Amino acid sequence: MVCGRIGDGIRSTRGLGAWLGFVAALVALTAAEALAAGHRTANFIIEAPTEALARRIGDAAEQYRHTLAVEWTGSPLPRWSRPCPITAQVAPNLGAGGATSFVFDRGEVFNWTMTIQGSEERILDSVLPHEITHTIFASHFRQPLPRWADEGACTTVEHPVERARQHKLLIEFLTTGRGIAFPEMFAMKEYPADVLPLYSQGYSLARYLIERGGRHKYVAFVSDGLASDDWSSALAAHYGVKGVAQMQHVWLDWVKQGCPAPPASLAAAVPPPAASWSAVARGQSPDSAPAPNPVPAAAPVATSAARTSVYAQARRAADGGTRKSGTGVD
Q1: Highest mean pLDDT: which of 15-19, 192-196, 245-249?
Q2: Quick one: 138 and 278 in the same domain?
Q3: How many domains does the chain have?
């Protein structure tokens, strides 16, 4: 996923190649707009090729928005003052990708816009949860995150197939001199020219940290790092790692060992996944009345690392850096 600042907004996409494909798809979208069908939920307005598909995407978006917000922050998001438009281009062989735009202004975030593309399966089990996680982070932090921390965490909620692809790319990048030194990666405010290694390294580091403390601790770590702009101190406080440079060495050793699961004592300390989500949509504030259009009780999304495909459940229901910088794996 590529994130780039556009004026005072943020645009996010799931990959440079996907972004180029997305631009091409916009041309086709213009001709097909008249044929698109719509569906509205409490927080989203969806345009898709068919009404049934728009409904499935909308139900999944609300479900991810609730469940992932609880999983990351401990609380569901309040209802947005205006719904986020989602435009979906869906075709069996269309490359998966997405773009989410929003504006930060004086501690507020608004003007949501999301465009997603790909097969129905990949949209529902990877693109949509990835993009929804961006909106959760924007709503929670109210400011841009470091690129590695944002994209890396969003990738952890994708389908295992997509996460495995990122790990495969990581090994390729590290063994061909394209790794990014952590002091450089942590300091990045914009994207490097060779951007894909940032996604793979960001995902791998986010995975490592989350496996050793859970998502709530990860969010607290990012929050402290943003507040102090001292990531070494944040790493020491939350993960007992003395600095960014040491984090690089610890992480590289872990990758060289094949990314083993954490010790049982650490794994046992990770909070369990969020409980099943409620079908009641939150209002604009925690004390407000339930939304007039409650979130439909669609098939639940698993909150574990092996996230269940919403697509599969919906169908069943319908059918009855650089080598010289020192980051490389030998």
Answers
A1: 245-249
A2: yes
A3: 2
